[in-house]
Write a structure and sequence with these properties.
The protein contains ten helices and 13 strands. It is α/β, with parallel strands linked by helices.
C-alpha cells in the first residue's frame, strides 16, 4: 500500500481544513475568554459525539437533560475541555448557517437534521437506472430549502447510451442548478465537478447512485466503502452506515451520508418554490392570487401546459410534494396543539389538587 493511502491519518488537520472561517470565529468570540474550545462535529450519537478540534479528534459527552437540539454532523460546537475527572463536554452549538432537514418517520414533529453548515449539495442521480424525476425534484426541494447550493451530478455516464440527452432532460426539472455528467470509470466530468463543488459538500441520493464512488474520486483515494448494486432493481446496499466528515485534498470538506431511502419533506415551502421556479413564475399571471392550478379560469400554469411549454408530469409532481409538505406541517401543528392541551390539562389538575389540599387543611 502506497504512502499516500496513509497520509490522512498521519497528517494532523486543523479546524481551517474543516471549514473554519471568519464567520465561525466571530460566532465563537463570546466563548473565547472562558477557556472553551471550538470544534466541528464529525459524528453524533445520543449521549456523545466525535468532534474535531485543532488538537485532533475529541470524544465529547453530550450532557443529558439539555433543552437544546442535539448536535448533528457538520455543526460548529463549543466544548468544555477535559479535566482530571472527566473528558470534554459539549457546551454549546453555534448557530447553523444552513441545515439539511427531512421529516422523520416517527411521531415527533421536529424534522431530522441530516447535516449542518453545508455549502453545496450534490444530488446524485445514476444514469444506469431509469430517471425518476419525482425523486430528483424531492431531493432538490430538500437541498434548496437547506440554504445550500444544489448541483445535480449524473453518475455512471459510461453505462448510458446518451448521457447528454439525459442531462437535457434533468436540466428541465432542475431550474437554477448546474447539471453535470460524470463517470468514475472514464474520468469524464470529474475536473468540472471538483471545480464546481466547494465548501462543505454533502452527497445526497439513493443507495446505488454512486455517492461513495464519487466521494472517493473527490478524496483521491478509496476511503469510502462502495458496494455492488443489485442488477434486479439498481438498488445498492447501504454501505455508508453513518455520516462522516472528511477534508478534501484540494480544500473543502466532504460529508458522507447514508443513502436515504425515504426523504420526507419538512417545512420545505421555499425549497419547493425554487425547485418548481417556472410554475411559480407562471402563477404570477393567474387570474386569481390563490389559484391552485386545478382548473380555475384564467390559470396561466394550465395554459402553459396546454401549449406544451410545461409537462403535466411537472405540475402533478408539484401538487404531490405540496400536499406532502402541507401534511407534515399539519402533523406538526396538531402535535403542538395536543401538547398545549396536555399542558393546560396538567395545570388545571395541579390547581384542583392544590385547592382540594387547601380545603382539607381548613
Amino acid at each position: 500500500m502506497s504512502q499516500s493511502k496513509h497520509h490522512h491519518h498521519a497528517q494532523p488537520y486543523s479546524l481551517a481544513d474543516y471549514g473554519w472561517d471568519e464567520a465561525c470565529d466571530h460566532a465563537f468570540a463570546p466563548y473565547r475568554d472562558a477557556g472553551l474550545v471550538p470544534a466541528r462535529i464529525v459524528r453524533a450519537e445520543r449521549s456523545s459525539c466525535e468532534a474535531v478540534t485543532d488538537a485532533g479528534i475529541s470524544h465529547a459527552e453530550i450532557p443529558g437533560g439539555a433543552d437544546q437540539a442535539p448536535p448533528t454532523t457538520g455543526d460548529w460546537a463549543v466544548l468544555s475541555p477535559a479535566t482530571t475527572s472527566r473528558g470534554p463536554v459539549l457546551h454549546a452549538v453555534l448557530e447553523r448557517r444552513t441545515a439539511l432537514v427531512r421529516s422523520t418517520a416517527s411521531r415527533t414533529s421536529q424534522g431530522q437534521v441530516l447535516a449542518a453548515n453545508v455549502d453545496t449539495v450534490a444530488v446524485t442521480v445514476s444514469l444506469t437506472a431509469p430517471l425518476k424525476h419525482g425523486r430528483t425534484e424531492r431531493m432538490l426541494a430538500l437541498a434548496w430549502e437547506s440554504g445550500a447550493r444544489p448541483v445535480v451530478v449524473l453518475t455512471k455516464a459510461d453505462r448510458c447510451a446518451d448521457p447528454q440527452q439525459a442531462a437535457a432532460e434533468v436540466s428541465e426539472v432542475a431550474p437554477g442548478a448546474d447539471v453535470l455528467v460524470t463517470s468514475a470509470v472514464t474520468g469524464e466530468g470529474l475536473d468540472t465537478l471538483t471545480a464546481v463543488l466547494d465548501g462543505t459538500i454533502v452527497l445526497l441520493g439513493p443507495s446505488g447512485a454512486g455517492k461513495s464512488t464519487l466521494g472517493n474520486q473527490l478524496l483521491g483515494e478509496d476511503r469510502l466503502t462502495t458496494g455492488a448494486v443489485r442488477d434486479v432493481d439498481g438498488k445498492g446496499r447501504h454501505t455508508t452506515a453513518w455520516r462522516e466528515l472528511v477534508p478534501l485534498p484540494g480544500g473543502g470538506v466532504l460529508l458522507d451520508t447514508p443513502g436515504l431511502r425515504a426523504i420526507g419533506l419538512h417545512d420545505a415551502q421555499d425549497g419547493l418554490e425554487q425547485t418548481f421556479a417556472e410554475i411559480e413564475l407562471l402563477a404570477r399571471d393567474c387570474r386569481f392570487a390563490d389559484c391552485g392550478h386545478l382548473g380555475e379560469p384564467g390559470c396561466a400554469v394550465l395554459a402553459a401546459i396546454e401549449a406544451g411549454e410545461v409537462p403535466q408530469r411537472r405540475l402533478d409532481s408539484y401538487h404531490r410534494l405540496l400536499r406532502e409538505n402541507a401534511y407534515a406541517a399539519s402533523r406538526t401543528d396538531a402535535r403542538l396543539r395536543a401538547g398545549r392541551e396536555a399542558t393546560k390539562k396538567d395545570i388545571t389538575q395541579h390547581l384542583r389538587a392544590t385547592y382540594r389540599f387547601r380545603d382539607r387543611q381548613r
